[in-house]
Amino acid sequence: MSNIALHFYEKPGCINNTRQKQMLRKTGIELIEHNLLTTVWQREELRRFFGQRPVAEWFNPSAPEVKSKRIRPHEIAATEALDFMIAAPILIRRPLLRFGNWYEVGFDWAQLIQELNLSEKEIGAIAAPSGLDGCAHENSTMIGLLDRRKGKQL
User: Fold this and answer.
1) Which residue of 7, 125, 147, 152 could cross-link 98, Cys pair, CB 3.0 to 4.6 Å?
2) In degrees rounded to 5, what are phi and psi of residue 40?
3) Residues 128/142, Cβ–Cβ less than 8 Å
4) Nearest to 86 by CA among 40, 131, 22
5) Which residues are designated catalytic?
6) Strand locations in the chain, DSSP E?
7) How many angstroms separate the CA atoms of 131 and 4, rounded?
8) Model confidence, pTM
9) What is the pLDDT of residues 101-132, one digit of tens each?
10) Kind plus residue range of the DSSP H or E element containing 17
11) How many Å apart are CA 8 and CA 33, to the nearest integer?
12) Is the pLDDT of residue 42 over 80?
């Protein structure tokens, strides 16, 4: 079992966040859960999660203000986006993940395996269902993702 404690910022009740947490727990990762909507965000801390991503990728595309086009993520500057998100955290794409000095927005299994340095034993044959975040990969098992990662190193 892993000694990893991963901070997981979620919207409670979100089906995808629940599925993501279940899969992480199966690998032995300890989750420190945070309610994304009630966390008191500081601009600098929130900004770390987005890294070099374009501002439009910071937003939850399902947020009512985004769906109705009252907020147009492709037309907003970073400082304005952070102001909107601090005022209305439902706008933040989720989950937000933090492990040590590593920050990330969204849920990418291949990236998690690499960043958390998960072993084949920890990962096992956990299937990564499609729709957890973005498009499904052609190889949906955790072992398949490890095999692809090994292939890139050769």
Assistant:
1) 7
2) -85, 105
3) yes
4) 40
5) 14
6) 5-10, 30-35, 96-99, 102-105
7) 25
8) 0.78
9) 999 999 988 888 888 887 676 666 465 555 55
10) helix 15-26
11) 5
12) yes
